[in-house]
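Protocol step 4 of 5: obtain the predicted structure for the target chain.
Materials: sequence only (see below). No template structures provided, no constraints applied. The aim of this step is simply to have a reference model before the mutagenesis design in step 5. Sequence pasted as it appears in the construct record:
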Amino acid sequence: MRSLKLIFVLIPFFLVSFSPKEEQLAWLGWNEGYEKAVKTDKILLVDTYTDWCGWCKRMDRDTYTNAEVIKKINQYFIPVKFNPELKDIVYKIDEQTMSGRELYAQLSQGQSTGYPTVYYIFTKKRQILLDAGYKGPKDFLKILDDAIEQSKK
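Step 4 output (structure tokens):
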């Protein structure tokens, strides 16, 4: 009888430990992410942020933790986190190297975008779409769908 009680106590423990893990985003750095996007022909999603940006932190907390957002990004995109204010990092695009500020200037194409800004890069077409500002999960999913459609054109 005692062993039967022990089994009932241990069953919930084993069920919890073997339950499937929630899907998460595997954020990459620029160099690894860019190379992977080129090889896989997926859309490079670049989340541009700074450490002091409150809206960036809110987007991390609200949007990038949403299960639908995670699923869609993992299926169609290569997600990259990019902080242009970090020093001593060399960013590469093919044979060209640059600083974070230089890469940010190239991505934003001279536009003043602020933080957060998400860039959608279609590496084969050499095309960039950008979306500046905080987006909640519902609005962000629409933008992801638009980027997916754009990639098919």
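Step 4 remarks: Residues 6-20 have pLDDT under 50 and may be disordered. The helical segments are 2-17, 30-40, 54-62, 67-76, 100-108, 137-152.
Proceed to step 5.
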